Amino acid sequence: MRIAVVGAGFGGIAAAHLLRQAGFRDVVIFDKADGVGGVWRDNVYPGCTCDIPAPLYSYSFALNPDWSQRFPPQPEILAYLQKCVRDFGLAENLRLGVDVVAADWTGEAWRVAFKDGTTALFDVLVPAMGQLSRPVIPVLPGHEDFTGPAMHTARWDPGLDVTGRRVGVIGTGASAIQLVPAIAGRAARVTVFQRSAPWTLPKPNRQYKAWRQRLNRRVPAVMRAARAGTWLLTVVTGKAVTGSRPARFAVWALSSGQRFVQARRMRKTVTPDYAMGCKRVLFTGDWFRTLRRPDVALVTADIERLTAQGIRTADGESHACDVIVYGTGFAATEFLAPVRITGRDGRALHDEWRDGAFAHLGITVPGFPNMFLMYGPNTNTGNTSVVYFHEAQARYIVQAVQLLQTQRTVEVRADVAAAFDAEMRRRLGASVWAGCDSWYRTGGGRVVTNWPGLAGEYAARTARLNEADYTR
Predict the structure, then answer these.
(1) Among 10, 196, 328, 429, which is least packed by CB within 10 angstroms?
(2) For residue 172, how many C-alpha atoms fall within 13 Å in the half-sphere facing its CB?
(3) Sequence-distant contacts of 452-457: CB under 8 A, at least 24 apart
(4) Quick one: which of 132, 178, 124, 183 has its CA closest to 5?
(5) Topology at the third CATH level for domain 3-134+331-471
(6) Beta carbons of 288 and 298 less than 8 angstroms apart
(7) Angle subtended by helix axes 455-462 and 386-403, to nearest 10
């Protein structure tokens, strides 16, 4: 049985490894880049770190004793994934620098087409391209007039030196909140353009000494205990996001206390005007202190246009910039784009998802046999580790592929997928996301990215594949 996994990030590596462990050896992992790592390969901006504690932001079957700190920087996470590929013996399964552009169901197999014009047949297709792989760069008036370098944080130029330069950062999301403190003090001036203030929590980071790393290696139970403790913390934040009043109040109080102590005279400007959970709650220890620096400015006026020398805002002010950085997020709702996928009877997935992406458990779509998604619709999390979701999905996919040993195709029933989609709409419509702006929504107003409950619920629901949910 030939299996194609598209994407060599956390999701693709987990799926390939668990499939191979289950005895499926003919697994090929395609990635258009020249290395593994996904977002941790692409994001190399200064200050890039994980915002979930490392004991949980790693595979449960490959705990890492050598993290240098609780919230490790990007190079360590990338090195961890590279080590996983070596330890899992996946190097021989990788096809790097290979760009998948289309996949068509022939009636018996998936014909995968590549950018170089070649094709190959596979029995199973596992798209694992992620929700955070396609940066969004707004087309602002005058963007062609700006004469300096401009880039998205996910496309950071490693050769760029911001020392002594005036840097404009558009956005105050997860990337910006790490980048700005990292370059403040080196740049001559940093100007941050804020559309909406983020919800934040104190970042309880700590360095792991050599003795702790030795203890981790000798007594793995220590790592498992740290993972369990982190899990319990994310249960509290998860309950806050999903509606528990006591948990919401506790997290709100912690966030408000951080602003009260650190933001001082800027409190009103940096207080969010939307419900907690509409955007990812961010961990930080230096964001507000950085904004108070004399060489850092926070601008809340709308951007009117870019000029040759910088950015002009709607209040008539001109802000000189030598460099512009877009911390403007990703096209998270455009699943699998730009790959063209055609299923049974010539059905284009793009057309099926015209009003918003959907998939049973975020994994399977009716009309697309033997295709199983990693990090599909409604499997994102705003408070815990997405790697936990990846593992749950990969284990479910293993069960689905095992079914193919006794039947030709595995395809979710249309009524089962419709019932799950209706449940997601109902639960998300009654939750915090119902009152949010457009951050998680499609043009039709549907929330297609986030899981409405706790991560533990998702793991339980995907733990055992129900064969009755699938056609035979």
Answers:
(1) 429
(2) 25
(3) 452/242, 452/378, 452/424, 452/427, 452/428, 453/242, 453/427, 454/235, 454/238, 454/239, 454/242, 455/234, 455/238, 455/381, 455/384, 455/385, 455/388, 455/389, 456/235
(4) 124
(5) FAD/NAD(P)-binding domain (3.50.50)
(6) no
(7) 10
pLDDT at 130: 87
For residue 433, the model assigns a pLDDT of 58
Write the CB contacts of 299 (distance below 8 Å, at least 6 apart in sequence): 191, 192, 193, 194, 313, 317, 319
Q: What are the residue boundaries of the structural domains of the chain, listed by start?
A: 3-134+331-471, 150-212+243-326
Residue labelled with tokens 């220890």: 285
Distance CA 16, CA 10 (A): 10
pLDDT > 70: what percent of the chain?
Answer: 97
- pLDDT given at position 439: 47
Alpha-carbon torsion angle 202, 199, 278, 428, nearest 10: 40
**Mean pLDDT, the chain, integer:** 93
Asked if pLDDT for residue 432 goes beyond 90, the answer is no
End-to-end CA distance of the chain: 18
Whether 3-134+331-471 shares its CATH topology with 150-212+243-326 is answered yes
The region of weakest confidence among 99-103, 149-153, 249-253, 396-400 is 249-253
The domain defined by 150-212+243-326 folds into: FAD/NAD(P)-binding domain (3.50.50)
Q: Is the pLDDT of residue 424 over 90?
A: yes
What pLDDT score was predicted for residue 352? 94
